[in-house]
Amino acid sequence: MSTAIVWLKTNLRIHDNEPLIKAIEQNDLIIPVYCFDDRQYSITAHGFKKTGSFRAQFLLQALTDLDNNLRQLGSGLVVVKGNTADALLQLAIQYNTIKIYAEQEVAYEELQIQKEVALKLRPINCKLEVFDTNTLYHPYDLPFTIADTPDIFTPFRHKVEAKAKIRAPHPAPVAIPSPALAPLILPTLSYLQLQPVETDDRAAFKDKGGETHGLKRLHYYLEDSQLVSTYKLTRNQLIGADYSTKFSPWLSIGCISPRYIYHALKGYEQKYGANESTYWVVFELLWRDFFRLMMGKYGTKLFQQNGIARHATRATEHNTDKLHRWINGTTGVEFVDANMIELKLTGFMSNRGRQNVASYLCNDLKLDWRYGAEYFEQQLIDYDVCSNWGNWAYIAGVGNDPRSDRYFNIKKQADQYDADKHYRNLWLK
Ligand SMILES: Cc1cc2nc3c(=O)[nH]c(=O)nc-3n(C[C@H](O)[C@H](O)[C@H](O)COP(=O)(O)OP(=O)(O)OC[C@H]3O[C@@H](n4cnc5c(N)ncnc54)[C@H](O)[C@@H]3O)c2cc1C
Hints:
Layout (H helix, E strand, L loop, with lengths): L2 E6 L9 H9 L2 E9 L15 H20 L5 E5 L1 H11 L4 E5 L4 H14 L5 E5 L21 H11 L47 H14 L6 H4 L13 H5 L5 H15 L3 H23 L21 H9 L5 H13 L4 H14 L4 H11 L5 H11 L14 H8 L4 H7 L1
Parallel strand pairs: 1-2, 1-4, 2-3, 4-5
The structure holds flavin-adenine dinucleotide (FAD).
């Protein structure tokens, strides 16, 4: 009998999950595992939490849902805490496992953990096998290597759209043979040294973590409401759940796969017709792929102040007072403050808001952009290492923007996107 471990990280789903499918095909018994690594709950270089309460709560909901779904197929979820490599080694010994299946990482810290796991397993002849599960386009299907990926989005998109195909999603397994697994025990927020989450009725994102909820949202946004047919017209709005897809929190921990979304969209287009809006969701998902490839190409550079810039970067100031006013929404610039208060109280902010507050921090406050990126890392319910750091570097003028002087005129933006002040009044009054 061969027993395999499936180490689940940001692929917390049953559908379109290659490591899970391959493990089932190649083994008799499967142990699905999730690890709470202490490092993911530590304090960052600039004093923020690496994971804040909003994201942790969403993750706990997603793990509960995953355990339920796994149990319906005859399995369950084992949750371990501490040091991932030690915990997986112990499980591999306990179950006499010769292979662990997992997703391929691209960012530095996640890759370090992946490398540690592979090294720890070697003395017991247990192999770590990794799969690319996270993107619309499989990296092997691209018309260039990761190292040769164009640095500018538009040529990247043109090449990809002309020459690559998006694979069909893997079907969900119908059964998962596993030994009897103990009931799920999750850490609490207080164990993770996090405050309880207070809900805010004004939140644009009120949904729960988990594949079940992510798939329900997909169905709602496409079939039930057909909102996707007007996405391009509404995506820059600021209030409520429906101006954009809100897929990002589920995508960030893999409760839903981008390829599954793509194929659902194609099905929708066949039934109801394609238009610029239905295409634009794919266009945005391509940005997500792009930032992941850039992380693969440039690695730790995307966490450094100069990013990937070849030009000298602007001088920045170290000013904790300005930073805290930005964080707390007390800068006096109402459009910035409303967005920052929304982020603080709900863990979410629109894309329009993110661009404006990021530009304000870099261009107006002249602070080091990495403070902003780290605060977002703590606070965002949809935090994704590649999308967050890639977008921040882009706006700071040290990333993949062909223009190094992009500046958001906050007054103009507020006049254009919040002309009637509904958004500012919602968060400031
Ligand atoms: C400074 C800054 C930080 C950001 N940090 C993150 C982050 O940590 N995690 C994250 O998922 N997105 C991040 N974004 C991108 C974007 O703001 C969010 O993906 C989007 O607001 C999520 O809402 P939605 O799912 O309704 O998006 P929609 O507008 O409905 O877009 C559909 C999907 O496309 C992808 N997408 C859209 N815009 C972008 C983009 N600019 N970059 C990459 N992918 C995109 C997302 O997966 C999103 O779910 C950031 C943007 C900025 C400017």
